[in-house]
Amino acid sequence: QLHLVESGGGLVQPGGSLRLSCADSKATSLSFYTVKWYRQSPGEQRELVAGSGSGGSTDYAHFARDRFTISRDPAKKTVYLQMDNLKPEDTANYYCNAVFGRFTYWGQGTQVTVSP
């Protein structure tokens, strides 16, 4: 069983960057999991931001393409979401999700606030 922990959120000005991290608290490798980042703003539905397949494939929501990059560091057992050129509309709680077969896990989220 995974206990996903996200980190790296915070307050940033428009145009700035943040790198979010997702790892298991017990240092379990995520290599065999499909890992995705989602986000949710107050009053909105949770939406997919980016995904990373266990075989190396990646996919992005239209708003994330060209600004966000999802990557893995197997040695650190961590999945990252590099977010550049952030906009106020990117403000949300960002969640890490890991899936393996019928097992799915969520982290508690990390808040990203983009404001002047």
Could you tell me the radius of gyration in angstroms? 13 Å
User: Cα distance, first to last residue?
Assistant: 40 Å
Share of residues in helices = under 10%
Mean residue pLDDT: 96
How would you classify the helix and strand content by structural class? mainly beta
Q: Biggest sheet: strands, sense, closure?
A: 7 strands, mixed
How much β-strand is present in the residues? over 45%
Model regions low in confidence, pLDDT < 50 over at least 5 residues: none
Shape: globular
SSE pattern, N- to C-terminal: EEEEEEEEEEE
Number of helices: 0
- Strand tally is 11
Blueprint of the fold:
Layout: E1 4-7, E2 10-12, E3 18-24, E4 34-40, E5 47-52, E6 58-60, E7 68-73, E8 78-83, E9 92-100, E10 103-106, E11 110-114
Parallel strand pairs: 2-11
Antiparallel strand pairs: 1-3, 3-8, 4-5, 4-9, 5-6, 7-8, 9-10, 9-11
